[in-house]
Amino acid sequence: MTVTHAEGTAQPRGETSSVELRIAAQKLKRIPGLDSEPIAVFLERGASDAARPFKAVSGHRCCQLLMRARSGESLCTDADGIACPAAAAAFGLRPLPQALASGQGLVGFGFVSDPETGRVMFEGMQRLPAGSVHVIAACPFGMAPSLPDVVMVEGRPEQLMWLLLADLNVDGGRRRVGDTAVLQATCVDATERSSFTWSGE
Question: What's the pTM value of the predicted model, to 2 decimals?
Answer without folding.
Answer: 0.80
